[in-house]
Structure prediction request, 851 residues.
Amino acid sequence: MSSIEVTNLQKTFQTKRKAAGMRGSLRALFKPEYNTVEAVRGLSFQMEAGELLGFIGPNGAGKSTTIKILTGILHPTSGDAKVLGFVPWKERQKLAYHIGTVFGQRPQLWYHLPAIDTFMLFGKIYELDDCETKKRISFLSEAFEIRDLLETPVRKLSLGQRMRCEVAASLLHRPKLLLLDEPSIGLDVVAKQHIRDAIRTMSQEEKVGVLLTSHDAGDLEALCRRVIIINHGQIVYEDKVSNLKRKFLTRKMVEVRYAEEVPPTFSIDGVEILKVGSYGVKLRFDTTKTPVDAVMAHLSQAGELVDITVSDPPLEEVIAKIYTANSVVE
Amino acid sequence: MKKYLSILTMQIINNIAYPGDFLGRSISIATFIFIFAGLWGTTFTIANTDAINGLTFPNMVWYFMMAETLELGRPRINRTISEQVKNGEVAYILNKPYNFLLYHFSAGLGDGAVRMTLNLIVGSIVAWILAGAPPAPLGWLMAFVTLIGAWILHFCFMALIGLAAFVVEETNSFELIYQKLVFILGGFLFPLDMFPTWLQNIAYALPFPYMMYAPARLFVKPDVDLFWRMLGGQAIWVTVFVFILAFVYQRSEKYLTVNGG
Amino acid sequence: MRQVKFIFALWKANLQAAMEFRAAFFTQIIFMMINNGVYFIFWILYFDKFNAVRGWDINTMMLLFGITASAWGIGAFFFGNFISLAEVIVGGRLDYYLSLPRPVLLHVLASKSIGSGMGDLIYGIGSFMLSGYFTPDGTLRFLLGVFAGVCIFIGFLVIVQSLSFWLGNTVALSQFALSALLTFSLYPSVLFDATTKFILLTLIPAALIGTIPAEFVREFSWQSAIQMVSGPLVFLFLSIFIFKLGLKRYESGSAIQVEV
Prediction:
């Protein structure tokens, strides 16, 4: 069963255009000119129940707009969508009982209150009874390690702590689907890891589907099975994350260190030498063109190996490549 | 001195750049004069008289026009100052090569000059339509001279309220009370002439009539005797409040250097 | 009934938030009461001199202040967002309310509490109790009048601020509408000519907040009873209708004005 079905979704915004300065303001007042911005252009995709799907794209690609349509916040200009069997913009309230949302840039916890108070309020909003709410809060505070933070006013929490509380709050009513818009924005590396772990655990334990937008490829690698990359409001790539890696992460970077000095003329066929130091070499090659074992054999023949590091290029780089490939097609 | 003049002109230019605010304030002053004229028009009709305590209906409307010009033309300096105190910006401004209070005084004067001019134009048109020709030139002259003292007194009050943010979280309450005291004891809603004598005596013992009643009353009924009395009163109260303000400001500056903002 | 429970939960959260700054909260309440009291001195002075204007005396005036202050106080304290709805819409803050399973407008309005509103409410009730109409049936009519006032305050401002869905930023317009409504509602509309009176019943419905309820409390009449029931209902329904219509055009802050 699919939890989200989207067919040919479109959303255009009319934005007022205004020349700078007072004269521009006056002209805009009496004779407004409009620009049409196509935020989403004919998007179609499906998401299975319990799936972990990543929505990746640069700023302004239409990710947030899509999520907002799927939660019923925005009305689309045209096209169809069903989320858990509901048409979001027509059955917003019914749908809201079954989904959880987190907008990274729009906090939902009451700023001046301790998180526990917002949790209790959410219990009322979702019509849970108090006893059930308390049990659930205690469970979630274990899962998200926020037990000690619950009594502190939210304004005194760090961003990372607050985001963990935010995600926990969105799971209070046992939603079947979690929509996360930029959940890791602005967080440091440790806080990001923390929140990803918690989301992954929860989705596995409670079979919650997760649709996540991010412009951080790390979220995608850590959380998602499948990825949709969008740019300019259209899907430019859609596949399993593992396939994405297999297809695009074919270039390996290798750094080796030797016990003795290396001749500066060091070279291997089909391998790009990035740097040759007196005791080490840094090189890059494509595994589909040059066999790994051949390269390794060469490296070990050159001298006594002390250390070796193999790394993939960062996923950001790969995605950036897909974007540019797409914009060239246009 | 020159730098304060440029702060003043900057503020004037800044003000002209927002036609929306312009429009909003014009409609506001027009509305208020309209309501006031309605109230007093009806009152004069019912009382079936030309003058109440020496003031005629046109006197009342023009009186209120001048009072509103000042009240609506007075920038809320206290809000700016308490904002700067609360968010710590004040610490940076104190280090700049100009006096914090004089900066706000010149900026406020530039801002106020534009607003008051506009209020005066729009207000005069509305008052003329509702109550007939404006007061004599001598009235305008006396009003302008006493407006200066009134403005300085307003500035002292607003600056003190703004600086109160060093001590208390919430200064809006003080603003409300100060405004209401001017409304009543300053003769904003009701000229002092119509007060019972005991209340007049109380009012004259306080600074408020010199902040509102003086320019408005001299405007509609210029009176040399009253003019000198008002000017004298303003001189005394300005001296008192400038001293208080200077003292409070010095204390706050010390507070800042000790507590680091 | 479901929504009543929910509203109470929101009010509880508001109160909890206010208690985080309880000193400021109580100061605001007390100062607002003093503020209103000082303002009313004007009318004491006025009626001391003129006794009555077209049937209005100091007691009717206390009724009018009582009703307007109570209505404003209830709106501000319990539905505090009714004066900042335009900012909520323009700033994209409706997202939060739209992602939760409750009526959006109700949820927005009740999600903020303006502490000083409690001061207005206490002042309003006090002003009514001292007005000389504090009898059982007077109280009943007073309650009805306050209810009408609350509906007009909220309904009118929701309509004006919902224009933000179509016109973009209307914060300045809303502020003007608010100040006009509030100012006019504090004066008896008998002071004005027929055209102005009509405007005060329709375009700026200030008479439906102050004058008509006050006259209704003073003396029962079918005309004011009908005006008091129909006016608020019209404004309330119109506001809900326009807000819902606008919601379809909600842009969640995504459409940024482009400067060229």
About this structure: Chain B has twelve helices and two strands. Chain B has a mean pLDDT of 89. Chain B has one domain: 2-259. Residues 224-259 of chain B form the longest helix (36 residues).
